[in-house]
Every structure is written in C-alpha cells, then in structure tokens.
Amino acid sequence: MTESMTAAAEPGLGEPTPVVSVKPVVLPAPGRGEDLRVRVSAPVSGRELPIIVFSHGYGWSLEGYGPLVDFWTAHGFAVIQPTHLDSRTLNIPPDDPRTPLIWRFRVEDLKRVIDELDLVEAAVPGLAGRLDRSRVAVAGHSWGGQTASMLLGARILDSDGRPGEDLSDPRVKAGVLLSTPGLGGDDLTPFAVENLPFMDPDFADMTTPALVVAGDKDDSPLTVRGRTGSPTRTPRAPAARAFSRCSVESIRSAGSPATP
Q1: By residue range, what is the domain housing residue 245?
Q2: What is the three-class DSSP state of 102?
C-alpha cells in the first residue's frame, strides 16, 4: 500500500488531497482462466466518492497511468484499474483459445469490478462505506477507450455491418474515452480487418454522456489514414462531447466530488 499526493492545485479544483493505493486486489473470475487483479486508489479522506473504472490500452496493466490516476484520486474520485488478459504481464500467447474474445473479456472485466465493489471496499483499509455506487464512470485509453465505450452503448459491427450485442451497463453514468479507436470500416488495414474484426465499432447507440479526447498526432498501424487527427475517425455518438484535455470537471456528469 502506498500513499502519495499530487504536487500542485488546478485552478478552480482546490488543493489536492493525499491518496492511498492498494495492489493487487484479487477478484475471483470463474471462466476467465485468471483471477482479475486490480489496483484501487482513493483519497484518504472524504465520503460518497464517485467511482472511475479505468481500462488500460493494449499490453498495459494496473501498473500504468499513475499521474492521471493520482490526479483524479487527489481530487475526490476512487479509481479502480483492472489488468486485462492482453497485458504483457500475463503473457498469454496468440494461440490461446481466449485470444479471439479478449475484447469481450475486457468488457466483462469492467463489469466484474462493478459487481464486486464489496470486495474492493473490504480490501482497502479505511475505504468501507465511502464509495458512492450511484455515481460510476468508466474511462479508458486506446483499446481501453473502446472497451469503456461498450458499457456506454457502443456496439461491434458484424461482417455484414450490423450492430452486435448491446453490452451497455445502466450502472455506468458517464465515460471518458482517451485516444480511442474510432470508426473502422474502410479505414482499417487488411491486417486489422482479418485479425481484429472487433476494431469496427458503431457508436450510434452510445447515449451515456462521454468525454472523447483525441490527439492530432495519434498514429496507428491498424489504419490507412495515417496521422489525420486520430487513428481512425473520431467516434460520433449522441452523447459524445470532444475536448482537448481531460479535467476533473469533464467527468462531473458522473456526480459531484466527494463530500468531506
């Protein structure tokens, strides 16, 4: 267990507070082949903490994104970071029978975290009774952004261009999508079309409020577009709003900050 504090206050957000981070918290995951390991970070004080479940990009793990997570937690949010099956720390081979469905396991990982908030609270000293389960947001970077978007209402298109199963979760009230793969279709490389069919999402039904952040130098070997604003076309969704930076205020739609 570690404690840290961000160095400086953001204008309008007040002084950052000390945070506590616990890893790994192990959540039973029957049928997954590996129990789900998560990192839980939260401010050391405050109650009714809004929750952010964060999905990492391809190959990363609960060890990543420290500065961002520290910023969010120092300003009143509890952040839970699962390690997905594609993490390099697990080293699952390409021929593993789970590999074609890792995108689906990722979605289930985020839902499992929300299902097991009792275990999460119990694993962190002083956290019990402090989470506000009515204010849950999902966030993700790169592939993690697509994973998070599925809980917001995005769907994967099948080979005929028809939206697949609705995997949205009504417990999730807001989302933050950072450098998320956008619309695929003709913008995907032949390799992506053949090997990564789940990289063709549809955002028409993503009605949960979301912050979408893309960089003008984002690049990806999975698209033929090159550096044209995002790896593929930016998601277009009824509730998506595009911003150039991700602040605490941007996810207040998940609820107000923690009360003292």
Answers
A1: 2-253
A2: helix
